């Protein structure tokens, strides 16, 4: 059973999402919160698999709530998905840096919401190639200096190659085809890279790949 916590200051949004999620046999909404501060308390109480968090809320916003969850080792199994009214607003990149597994637009189709919750619960990132391209475009228009000491020196050449392909928006199957390996081996390379780089998920790998200089915008 996938345990979900809803954190949004709009009761109508919460009730709509809950009504949809509660119809599924494999998903249970364990609690709701109207702001990030209350949400953090409920995360510790319920230890949900997935937290759907509004990005803009009073008291503690979605980014700060995500940052606190990601920083707590006791909550390592909690996957945060940011809810936003816009496909790529100014806060999304900050949310991914904070440790979010991805983000969803609030007018998402019901079937896509259900799929996204299941993907997040598995520990996979909600970063479709189209979203990854938007992230890349953000780096192209607002370049940032490469981060030193990002830990890339601990990766094998194959792990670095796999991370670069993740950052370009490729799936495990596409990475396996490109590297001429099995999908399982591709996943192993990615998981080992996440462990070595202390990345919670693929979303953080994408951000790290660009911030470290492993992938340069416009060259992939």
Automatic annotation (TrEMBL):
UniProt source species: Streptomyces durmitorensis
UniProt KW keywords: DNA-binding, Phosphoprotein, Transcription, Transcription regulation
Domain of life: Bacteria
Residues in Response regulatory domain copies: 3-121
Pfam families: GerE (PF00196), Response_reg (PF00072)
HTH luxR-type domain span: 148-213
CDD domains: LuxR_C_like, REC_NarL-like
Descriptive protein name: Response regulator transcription factor
4-aspartylphosphate PTM positions: 54
């Amino acid at each position: 059973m996938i345990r979900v916590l809803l954190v949004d200051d709009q009761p109508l949004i919460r009730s709509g999402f809950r009504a949809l999620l509660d119809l599924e046999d494999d998903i249970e909404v364990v609690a709701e919160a109207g702001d990030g501060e209350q949400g953090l308390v409920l995360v510790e109480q319920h230890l949900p698999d997935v937290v759907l968090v509004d990005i803009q809320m009073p008291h503690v916003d979605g980014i700060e709530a995500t940052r606190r969850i990601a920083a707590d080792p006791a909550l390592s199994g909690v996957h945060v998905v940011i809810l936003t009214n816009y496909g790529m607003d100014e806060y999304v990149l900050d949310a991914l840096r904070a440790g979010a597994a991805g983000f969803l637009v609030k007018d998402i189709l019901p079937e896509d919401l259900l799929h996204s919750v299941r993907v997040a619960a598995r520990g996979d990132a909600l970063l479709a190639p189209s979203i990854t391209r938007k992230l890349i475009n953000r780096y192209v228009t607002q370049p940032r200096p490469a981060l030193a000491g990002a830990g890339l020196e601990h990766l094998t050449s194959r792990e670095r190659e796999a991370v670069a392909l993740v950052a370009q928006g490729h799936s495990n199957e596409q990475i396996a085809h490109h590297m001429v390996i099995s999908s399982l081996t591709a996943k192993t390379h990615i998981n080992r890279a996440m462990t070595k780089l202390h990345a919670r998920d693929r979303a953080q790998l994408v951000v790290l790949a660009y911030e470290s200089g492993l992938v340069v915008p416009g060259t992939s």
